[in-house]
Amino acid sequence: MANSNKSSTADTALLQLRKEIDAIDDRILDLLNQRARCAQQVAEIKTAAGEVDCFHRPEREAEVLRRIAENNRGPLSQEAVTRFFRELMSECLALEKPLAVAFLGPQGTFTQQAAYKHFGHAIQALPLPTIDEIFRAVESGACQYGVVPVENSTEGVITHTLDSFLRSFLLIAGEVGLRIHHNLMSTVSSSEEIREVFSHQQSLAQCRGWLDRYLPNVRRTPVSSNAEAARLAAVMPNTAAIAGEVAAELYGLTILERNIEDEPDNTTRFLVIGRNPVGATGNDKTSLLLSTRNNPGALYAVLEPFARHGISMTKIESRPSRRGTWDYVFFIDVEGHRDDPRLAEALKDVEKSVTMLKILGSYPRASF
């Protein structure tokens, strides 16, 4: 009898909680649509003012996500609430004007995942086969933005992306950090049947140790993307691909081994490229492209103003300038926005000691 009473009490409590959840869900739904109507009104105001190309404001989105994360008291994690509001803003923006975003295709690449992480899923995502074509799509206005990989925590920079900035007028509008998990996938049921492995050359390098240990005699063939590797493995017998989980689902492959990357914290940084400058948010980065005279102390003259003005430099990378033998340009990331007084003063001083200074963009730091 006592157990029956306890069960009845528990059932009553559960019923009450479910009713409360239903009521909360109804309020959330009303508020979501209320926010969406506000977004539509914003679009109407901008259209009336002639701002037809300014619907998307990266700095505004970054500020909203930062405020939401700071105000979150749990039990939901910061990442969970940020991801939810990113998708909410994506859907609301699509009511105003859907964004066209180019990414390194085909479907199922890590670059596509980075695009969705940054913009949400309510975008017109356009897969393109090369980084050059992504730059051209944004330069021509066919897409508002592009997403390109720029560096990996294990293998370093993607030189093709850096070289593209030498030729392009585009600006960096954002950055995305994505944890990369590589999986071995195939149509075969055992890795012993595999004779060839396809993947992007960066992914092959990031899994070199695992491949040396478990598939030492299997041919490794670099291809244009991990998604292309999955497509090939789906049609060619006794082959496998190294790619993300999404690619396995898209191309009907079985994942034989998960997380085969050599470094457990393997992360790739992606850049968002666009045509318009981004306003300051208070938590920004600025990327620079510069060249110096080939004189003793030339690089010190470039770096000294940053130290003197208290500007933290987070990255420096050299690349051949393609203008002459042993002539180099430097890609530099510093903390702050180009409009911040201290950084603006530092850049004025730097400009005095270089032969070329190009600001590639000031943009919000990755939010999560």
UniProtKB/TrEMBL annotation:
Provenance organism: Methylocaldum szegediense
Keyword Coiled coil belongs to the record: no
One of the Pfam families matching this protein, by short name: CM_2
Protein name (Swiss-Prot/TrEMBL): Bifunctional chorismate mutase/prephenate dehydratase
Domain Prephenate dehydratase: 100-275
Catalytic function, reaction form: chorismate = prephenate; prephenate + H(+) = 3-phenylpyruvate + CO2 + H2O
Chain's role: Catalyzes the Claisen rearrangement of chorismate to prephenate and the decarboxylation/dehydration of prephenate to phenylpyruvate.
GO molecular function, one term: prephenate dehydratase activity
Annotated ranges, domain ACT: 287-364
Gene: pheA
Gene3D superfamilies: 3.30.70.260, Chorismate mutase, Periplasmic binding protein-like II
Keyword Repeat: no
Pathway assigned in UniProt: Metabolic intermediate biosynthesis; prephenate biosynthesis; prephenate from chorismate: step 1/1; Amino-acid biosynthesis; L-phenylalanine biosynthesis; phenylpyruvate from prephenate: step 1/1
Keywords: Amino-acid biosynthesis, Aromatic amino acid biosynthesis, Cytoplasm, Isomerase, Lyase, Multifunctional enzyme, Phenylalanine biosynthesis
Segments forming domain Chorismate mutase: 8-100
Subcellular location: Cytoplasm
Enzyme Commission no: 4.2.1.51, 5.4.99.5
Main location, first listed in the record: cytoplasm
InterPro entries: ACT-like_dom_sf (IPR045865), ACT_dom (IPR002912), Chor_mutase/pphenate_deHydtase (IPR008242), Chorismate_II_sf (IPR036263), CM_dom_sf (IPR036979), CM_II_prokaryot (IPR002701), G/b/e-P-prot_chorismate_mutase (IPR010957), Preph_deHydtase (IPR001086)
